Amino acid sequence: MGSLTKRLLVAVPAIVILIAATFWEQQFLFKFIAVCSLGLALLEFLTLADRGKMKTLRIEGLLALGFVLLPWVLRPMVSWEGKGTLLVGLWILTLSFLCSNRPLKEMVTSVSVTFFGVSYFGLLGVYFFRLRELPGGAWHLLWVFIATWAYDTGGYFAGNLWGRHKLAPLASPKKTWEGCIGGFVLVIVGLFLLWKGMNYFGVPNPYSLTDILVLSLLLSFFAQVGDLVESVIKRSLSAKDSGSFFPGHGGVFDRIDSLLFNAPVLFYYLIEFKQ
What is the mean pLDDT of the chain? Predict the structure, then answer.
């Protein structure tokens, strides 16, 4: 079985399940997938750090992440946004620092690395929930999904076919400027087709042709930033993939790295220019 076939056999069912959960009126399945994805991505990050001889606090880290996400999981039963839950997470890690019998030289690093992971996946991850809560939230999330997947796909094929000029050789040697251009072009195509589809089926559509161009630029840029940030994290910890949860694709962190950056970008674009 070729690598592309293997990737498709994994990606297609996962995408269908994710989109179905996103559009299902009962949001518990979407929230379950989002929480599990963020928790697994954090666990992958902490595992990589452990292998890099930076001992982390896995259980405490997952518990802290749970506190950050809890208000968004419980909505609409609660109206508060839980801005102080990250502080609760820090308290959890600090208490584990005080109660631990680990060598003192390890503890500052352990708490710092773990808190970085909790903040990274918690503060960025809540925007999946924030987008879903907006009017037409499922469609907004679909814009994020389509743009991110189109950029990854266009970049993969354009980079393999025409890639010559390295984008960031130290962070990610395989990324090329040709791949970036190919990804950007496919994002424009993907968002335009989605925009036409929404109009054709009579879905309330706040986006315009200008928005397609602007968002193609923004979401392509931040998709690449998210991917490069994860590449730097992995290379600094001497790892190729964050895990092996998705055969042929790597770990959960590998799959949501760009989504984590694009979700807040679209959220604030909508808040500032479309509300």
Answer: 89
